[in-house]
Design goal:
By secondary structure, the chain is of the alpha+beta class. Helices cover about 50% and strands about 20% of the residues. It contains eleven helices and nine strands. A nine-stranded mixed β-sheet has the order 1-8-7-6-4-3-2-5-9. It is globular and about 65 Å long.
Length: about 375
């Protein structure tokens, strides 16, 4: 997972005055010497060719911030113009407004977003709209084509990081599955760990691209779901409805997605539904304040989508026992999500919001029923 360090930062500087190179220094609370950045690549166009200095007006101790003294690697997305939705009240006021079932005022603000991928710490992110910023004169100018190329390189860096995080199944394991050999306890545990890593990676990608208008394509690229990218491209070319991620099946056979030799896209329709429900859940709970059911709901939905991706997506076959085990886990998270959603419906103060949450609950229940039915089909076979 990403290291998020903005709370512990005292001040810092990002220097992209040399084309193709981004350097910097970060002063972290409790450390005498600054963390040094030595990165390949450029910032987005708003920061490219400049030196940015920033200061945190209210630094706070942050547990677990153990950055290597030298951050050498490649840039991710670096910009001071990312748009985020921000509450116009303090945390205490936010809680009071939510408890009183009153509307919470929000606005869109430019956010400082600094991301890089280092050899020592992996993905590191600074994301805040509270820092005081100062920008130097521009030394060189980045054009739109140059910026687009840099953003594509940033997406590739994210994909490489996700691939290392997931460490997908290797050829030896594939051969073992194809040969029909039964796996021992250690091998099953490795498979389950792989699924856990995939769920963590999916949550991180979802968090990064959630508000992006091109989120589906970027998420698919970062996760290495090349079949999804191809399917989306074909849908666009054919002017079909965006979001239909699997050929329609009128047979009612849950297993037909595995048997069609013409199918190259490897996202299971059930996982696609779960992924859509995650996004709906997060959208509906953005103004949820401190209500404890909000993180329970979203966390459970993310787990289901991630685990289904690990159990059903991909271009290699899983053992039936493994899939059954993962689907059983998902049923538990679906139950947690249903309970949390019901709790949020009970405190919803707006009729439209309440109806939207009820529709979300119906979708969660529908996915739960499909999981149950898929388990029945797999057990019969």
């Amino acid at each position: 997972m990403a290291w998020r360090i903005d709370e512990a930062l005292v001040r810092g500087e990002i220097d992209n005055t040399v084309e193709g190179k981004t350097s910097g220094r970060l002063w972290v609370l409790g450390r005498a010497d600054p963390v040094v950045l030595d990165l390949t690549g450029d910032c987005w166009r708003d920061l490219a060719g400049t030196r940015l200095t920033f200061r945190n007006p209210d630094p706070k101790p942050q547990a677990g911030v153990e950055l290597a003294a030298l951050q050498r690697g490649v840039v991710g997305d670096m910009t001071a113009s990312r748009k985020n939705k921000v509450a116009l009240v303090s945390e205490d006021e936010l809680s009071a407004l939510y408890a009183a079932r009153q509307e919470i005022p929000f606005c869109w603000k430019n956010t400082l977003y600094l991301e890089w991928f280092s050899e020592g710490n992996g993905r590191v992110v600074i994301e805040t709209c509270d820092f005081e910023l100062e920008l130097s004169e521009r030394v060189w100018v980045m054009d739109e084509d140059f910026e687009e190329a840099q953003k594509l390189a940033n997406m590739q860096a994210m994909r490489d990081f996700m691939n290392a995080l997931v460490r997908r199944i290797g050829p030896a394991a594939e051969r073992r599955v194809d040969s029909g050999e039964e796996e021992d306890e250690f091998q099953w545990e490795e498979r389950l760990k792989e699924s856990d890593r995939l769920a963590d990676a999916y949550q991180e990608v979802l968090e990064k691209y959630l508000d992006d208008p091109d989120a589906e394509r970027k998420e698919a690229f970062a996760m290495g779901w090349d079949g999804l990218l191809e399917a989306l491209a074909e849908e666009n070319e054919a002017a079909e409805v965006v979001g239909q991620s699997w050929p329609a099946d009128d047979s009612g056979d849950e297993e037909s997605w595995e048997d069609d030799d013409e199918v190259e896209f490897r996202q299971h329709p059930l996982q696609g539904k779960a992924q859509d429900v995650v996004i709906r859940g997060i959208d509906l709970t953005r103004a949820g304040g401190e209500h404890p059911a909000v993180p329970v709901l979203n966390g459970a939905l993310m787990q289901v989508a991630g685990k289904l991706a690990g159990a059903l997506n991909g271009d290699y076959e899983r053992e039936t026992g493994y899939v059954l085990a993962m689907l059983k886990r998902c049923l538990g998270w679906q139950n947690d999500a249903l309970s949390a959603c019901t709790e949020l419906i009970g405190v919803a103060d707006d009729p439209d919001h309440s109806r939207a949450l009820e529709a979300l609950r119906d979708s969660i229940f529908e996915i739960r029923e499909e999981i149950v039915n898929l388990r029945k089909v797999l057990k019969r076979n």
